[in-house]
Amino acid sequence: MNADFHHLDHVKEQSTSKKTLWITLILTLIFTVIEVIGGVLSQSLALISDSAHMISDVLALGLSMFAIYMATRKPNEHYTFGFLRFEIIASFLNGLALIVIAAWIFVEGIKRMIHPQQVDLTMMLAIATIGLIVNITLTLILSRSMKAENNLNVKSALWHFIGDLLSSIGVIVSAILIRFTGWQVLDPLISMVIGGIICVGGYKIIREAYLILMESVPEKFDLNEIRAELALIEGVEDVHEMHLWAISTEHYSLTAHVFVRADIQPFCVILAVNEMLKSKYGIGHSTIQIEHAAIHDHGEYGKRFLLTHG
Questions:
Q1: Do residue 165 and residue 21 come from a single domain?
Q2: How many CB atoms sit inside 10 A of residue 149's CB?
Q3: Are residues 201 and 270 in the same domain?
C-alpha cells in the first residue's frame, strides 16, 4: 500500500549539519578523555568543571546526531508531520543539560571556596591551552554550519562550545592569577562565573525549544500583519481561526478559516492565499478553509459579520 499521506515530505536532509556534528563529536570525544584525566590529576575545579561540560557535549552531540537522523525519516500513518519535532526535543534536553551542569559547577565552587585545594598549575595551564585551541576550532566550524543551515540542534551545540571556549579562557586566566597571587580561591570563583555564562546559554536554548513545543507563533512573524495581508486578497471578507506555528526550525505551518464573497471562485482564493504566504513569508504549508457565514455556523461572531456585511 502506498504510504503517501501528502505531497510534502516534512523531512530535513541537513548534509552540512551532519558533517559538522560528526567532526565536532570526534574531536570533542578525544579532548574530553584528555581533560578528564588532566582535571583529576591536577585537582583543578575549573578544569574538572570544564571536563564535565565536555562530557555533556559528547552526550549532547550524540543526541543531536540522532535528532538529525530522525528528521530525515518520512511521515507515516502515525507521525504525519514526520519526525522533525525530535530536533526540538533534543535541543530542549541539551538546554536542560547546560542548566544542570551550571548548577553543579556553582555548588562545587562554593565547596571549594570553603575548603580550598592546591592545584597543579602547570598541568592545568597546558591542558586548558590545548582546550582553547580545540574549542576555537569547533566554535568556528559550528558557526559556519549555522550560516549554511539553520538548525536548533547545531545552535544548542554551538552554545555548548561557546561555554567550553569561555571555560578554557577562564581556566587559563585562573592558572596565571593563582601563580602570581597564590589565591587558590580564584579557581572555584572563575568556575562559578563560567557556570553563570553556561546557564544563560542553556536558558536561551530551552526558551526557543519551549516556544516551538508550545506551538507559539514564531517570533519572526506578526500574525496581525499576515491576517491583514490575507484580507487584501480579492474576495476575502474575513479571516478567523488562524493558527501559525513551527514544526521545527524553518518549517512553518498555517491554518485559517476564510469568509469569501459568493461570486468568487473559492479555488482562486486558496491559490492566491497560498502563493502570497509562500512568496512573502516563506510559509510553504498552509491549509485554508473557505466558508460562508450564512451557511457555516459561527455563533455570535458569524451573526455580527452578517450584520455588518449584509
A1: yes
A2: 17
A3: no
**Contact criterion met (CB below 8 Å) for 84 and 9:** no
Domain annotation covers residue 5: no
* Cα three-residue angle 230-236-242, rounded to 5 degrees: 50
38-96: pLDDT as tens digits? 777 777 766 676 676 677 777 777 777 777 777 777 777 888 777 878 878 888 888 88
Q: Do residue 26 and residue 129 come from a single domain?
A: yes
Type and span of the H or E element at 90? helix 85-114
Q: Are residues 33 and 118 in the same domain?
A: yes
> Is-contact 185 50, C-beta < 8 A?
no
| Phi, psi angles (nearest 5°) of residue 243 | -135, 140
Take residue 112 and report the three cell numbers written for it.
Answer: 571549594
Query: Are residue 259 and residue 229 in the same domain, yes or no?
Result: yes
Q: E strands of the chain, at which residues?
A: 236-248, 251-260, 285-291
Give the domain range for residue 58: 16-214
Which residues, in sequence order, are bridge partners of residue 255?
A: 243, 287
DSSP letter string, 153-205 = HHHHHHHHHHHHHHHHHHHHHHHHHHHHH--TTHHHHHHHHHHHHHHHHHHHH
